[in-house]
Amino acid sequence: MRQRLVGKAWGSGASGPCAMRATGVRYLPAIAVVAGMFAAPALTSGCAVSESDAHRWETTENGPEKLYAIVGHEKYSWPLREEAALSLIRMRPRNGKRIGLEYLIVGYDTPTGRVPGILAVQTEDARRRIVDGIAPKLVEQMQRPPPPKPVEGQVITPDPSIPFKDAAFALLSHEPPLASNEATKASLMGALTQWVQTDFEDRIDNSNQQFGVEQIMRFIGAPSVKTLPNSITETSPKVDRACALVADIADDETKKRASDALVAMNKHIASNDWLDKQRALVVEANGKAKIAATPQQVNDQLKQYQDQELEKVFTNMKRVGGRPTVDYCLAYAQNKANSEKSRTNALAALENRIDKNSPGDTTIIVDILTDDANPDPVRAVAMARLGELPKEMILPKLYALFDKKWKVRLDAARMVLRTITTKDLPDFLQHLPQNDKTKLALSEPIAYGSLIMQMDPQGGPKPRDVLAKYLQGPLGAQLTAAGSYYSSKKSDATGLAALEESKALVPKCDPADDCGWQCDVPKSPGSQEKETKTVTTVGEFVRWCIEPSLQ
User: Fold this and answer.
1) 295 lies in a domain?
2) How far apart are CA 37 and CA 32, in angstroms?
């Protein structure tokens, strides 16, 4: 394979003493591409190359090749080679690409293969000399303040520090790193750490960068996000981005400050001061939209908007965690004055955050579960949080909920059955209602039976063998054993026959209890027409609800 190199004038004209001797096209073996580039300026005799040439070549068509050669050739002075490297860094993008950075560090593709950046093919000593020489200038440029934010209608001023930041990151992230001097690496890392945290909200989405802020932060690690808790405010448009980075790479101290910031933000949004401020804005917006809203309607608009804003903060609390958010979310979820939606969001933010070693955490969750005044959606999320704790801790608390409303018992029982093995089933069945004096919903025994039949014995007895013993047991266990046959094969359900004529009463429920002791039964054998019958006995439960479902 051969590499085609275009040799054009190195001076201001295309001919004369400073023109390349090999004018026109020069062919070299592909493996000699780099060497050929080094040699190109050396072909010129009686011609000195200066810093002004290097600066001028930043804008010429073949400037990158010429600068590449100067950086790599030992005939040139170290200051000139360093200046050529800086010229490649300063070079404006061409067709959207920073080709100067490619020629210096990253490498670039040609029709005959990939050419490495010139620094990558230098000797260790030469590379160190050049990198150590340009590093202070990179740091100096990175420390320049960002351009002022434009006012409305004003053209955005490009950030002049970006090329130098990109070069510094490329030197450090190259495999192997091109900055080998520990002092140089430390200075570049420190400048990068400062750069990504300065003007974070604008720089995080600046599309003119070769390497994005988030990529650099994840490369640097915890030190790069130390100041991000300062961006967790109501006025910041990048709260989500800041919280995601803190959650992923921050140290414990930074996470705590972020957690504190989220609590402060949530408290303000939940305050009357916030509502009063937003009220004026809502009224103004209604007026512009010609909406004649009553005071109550305005209140409803405000509460809905407040819940939406709080949900955003709770989502970030879930990301970041931290003791401040755990304490706040627990207290918020327990407070009945808060809306149902926000209370459930507060509990959702605690996913996998409840501390098993903190009795207070568990106590609040159980209090929410056992308080009948709490809405079912709030209790359902509280149940999910309880289920994340160790088995030995939650089983006693879950069984304590079995004497509450049947919907609470259903949720608790489902969690128990996902936690225990078939060896533990007798204990579970004994905790179910013993007779018709305790309210029980028709859906409960069917749900329990189905979950039990899906259990893996894990070396214990088979689910059916356990349940068979309870077909004549206490009411809750008996109904669960019968309910386990729901949608089973007829050939497997012979044990139901003994219950078909049972006169044992099932619990009576008030309409408000929504217990559902009714089943749709065919009007006659094989008929598609059905009638709804109210179940009063175990026998009727078997004949009307279970046997018609058999396959």
Assistant:
1) no
2) 9
Q: Looking at residue 534, what DSSP letter applies?
A: E
204 contacts 213 by C-beta, under 8 angstroms: yes
What is the rounded CA–CA span in Å between residue 458 and residue 43?
81
Can you tell me the distance from the alpha carbon of 468 to that of 481, in angstroms, rounded to the nearest whole number?
7
Residue 121 lies inside a defined structural domain of this protein? yes
216, 239, 254 - which closes a domain: 216
Does residue 124 sit in helix, strand or coil? Answer: helix
Distance, in Å, from the CA atom of 506 to the CA atom of 483, rounded to the nearest integer, reads: 13
Distance CA 31, CA 471 (A): 84
| Helical (H) or strand (E) element with 400 | none
pTM of the shown model: 0.79
314 Cβ contact partners less than 8 Å away, ≥ 6 residues apart:
266, 329, 342, 345, 346, 348, 349
Adjacent-strand bridge partners of 29: 2
With CA atoms as reference, report the closest residue to 535 among 512, 513, 519: 519
**Can you give the pLDDT of all 551 residues of the chain as single tens digits?**
333 333 333 333 333 334 333 323 233 333 344 444 444 444 344 467 888 988 999 999 999 999 999 999 999 999 999 999 999 999 999 988 889 999 999 999 999 999 999 999 999 999 999 999 999 999 999 999 999 887 776 777 899 999 999 999 999 999 999 999 999 999 999 999 999 999 999 999 999 999 999 999 999 999 999 999 999 999 999 999 999 999 999 999 999 999 999 999 999 999 999 999 999 889 989 989 988 889 999 999 999 999 999 999 999 999 999 999 999 999 999 999 999 999 999 999 999 999 999 989 999 999 999 888 999 999 999 999 999 999 889 999 999 999 888 989 999 999 999 999 999 999 999 999 999 999 999 999 999 999 999 999 988 999 999 999 999 989 999 999 999 999 999 999 988 999 999 999 999 888 888 888 999 988 887 778 889 999 999 999 999 999 999 98
The string over 90-106, giving b where at least 16 C-beta atoms fall within 10 Å of a residue's C-beta and e elsewhere, is: bbeeeeeebbbbbbbbb
Give the three-class secondary structure for 384: helix
Q: Which amino acid is at 72?
A: G
How many structural domains comprise the chain? 2
Is 234 contained in some domain?
A: no
Is there a domain that residue 399 lies in? no
Domain boundary among 198, 216, 234: 216
Return the H-helix or E-strand segment holding 396: helix 391-399
Determine the Cα–Cα distance for residues 193 and 242; give it in Å rounded to an integer.
Answer: 15
Q: Which domain range does residue 544 map to?
A: 420-551
H helix or E strand, kind and range, residue 206: none
Give the DSSP letter of residue 499.
G
Candidates 506, 513, 501; CA nearest to 536 is: 506
Task: Please report, as a single letter, which amino acid is at residue 28.
Answer: L
CA distance to 312, 408, 441, 446, 507, per residue, from 513 (Å): 35, 12, 9, 18, 11
